[in-house]
Amino acid sequence: MNCVGHIHHGLWKHPRDNSVDYRKPEYWIELAQLLEKGLFDAVFLADIVGVYDVLGDGIDVTAREAVQLPVNDPSYVVPLMAQATKHIGFGVTANLTYEHPYLFARRFATLDHLTSGRIGWNIVTGYLDSAARGVGLKQQHDHDDRYDRGDDFMDAFYKLLEGSWEDGAVLADRERGVYADPAKIHRVSHDGPFYKIDNVYNLTEPSPQRTPVLYQAGASKRGNAFAGRHAECVFTGGPDRAALAKIVSTIRGQAVEAGRERDDVKILSGLTVVVDTNEKAARDKFEEYRAYSSPEGALAHMVSGTGVDLNRFGLDEEITEETLEALYPDRLRRVGEARAGRFAAGTTRRKLLEARRFGSQQPPVVGTPSQVADEIERIVAETDLDGFNLTRTVAPESYRDFIELVIPELQNRGLYKTSYEEGTLREKLFGAGRARLPGNHHAARFRTWK
């Protein structure tokens, strides 16, 4: 994330962490080169367009602990990283709720051109009231309404990128003085329930992928249906492996219902790793990291997803669904079932803070390269996941440790590539010759030419 503190809050304070350099071009260039050395598929750039201002009804914790604040736009660092690399892709988060598809399509087509087809878009619809207030709304739209808007946005987006310029429209004929054949550039009209486009052409010529690789994260029933129709890569998670396996199966089933193949969706889950050459060294490193973590920062992050200020509860007072409903009669409904309270019996603020002693609710895998590889194998075998989104702890040390210690172990087991394939990001993920969205994807119906 283009910020100081992302997932594991407080670790920016570690003396070997360089996250405070996020404003410098060298930070991003060196990161991309390091990850390409490790043969990573992509740099995933998260983003928010609001602030975490729910805990304590303000930003005291958020600002003090740099909980995704300050945060810069993620898209502008992509050309820097692309210029310094050849293969690694870039997944950029952008909130469609506060965009218009006409200009947004141009922006991502431009990024696809500048990266030679290595761009992806992580589609989000938002979850922060502070973001809505920042653009003049009283509060964000209801959960399912945001996905309804999202479906309409995507239809317009596809019309622009898939249905306007034909592949043979660009001639670049110097002798005849013809750059593009106007007969092969088609008008785009969209009259949807939320977005209107009235007889305009897409502004950019076709990029290597036309439509960026489509990422999406959503755990709700409505979010899974959206993913089944649109997403090529889905980020998900669950409280345990059995629950995660069920979610993975549901998402693949949604893709089939949308007329796609089960394997048309790559499903990923978050993974945090603290690794060293022996188990004691790994445990010592973990404890060293944890000494700098901020459980309170992690709680400020968490409660902004539900919109409920847990500081209104005593440290050992039980947090119940009934109490939350009484305090926030309509809030939990608006954020949707995936982000509603859902607190287990006996939950207290003290217990929530204790569970976030590493600055996040995500438990890390701690151990030797062999132990980490064993755990990765088990997770994939038991859940049918395709891969992982590796979160940063102390950066760039945590990436370098994974690259130098874990990846060779995975390669020895035949579980990780030993070189990049040529081609676009979509081809690297789905195979040669698949630079564009396939014919069974929802976007294909908006191709007005053959």
UniProtKB/TrEMBL annotation:
Pfam families from the UniProt entry: Bac_luciferase (PF00296)
Membrane-traversing stretches: none
InterPro entries: Diverse_substr_monoxygenases, Luciferase-like_dom, Luciferase-like_sf, NTA_MOA
Keywords on record: Flavoprotein, FMN, Monooxygenase, Oxidoreductase
Record has Chloroplast as a keyword: no
Domain Luciferase-like: 23-380
UniProt similarity note: Belongs to the NtaA/SnaA/DszA monooxygenase family.
NCBIfam families assigned to the protein according to its UniProt record, in alphabetical order: FMN_nitrolo
Protein name listed in UniProt: LLM class flavin-dependent oxidoreductase
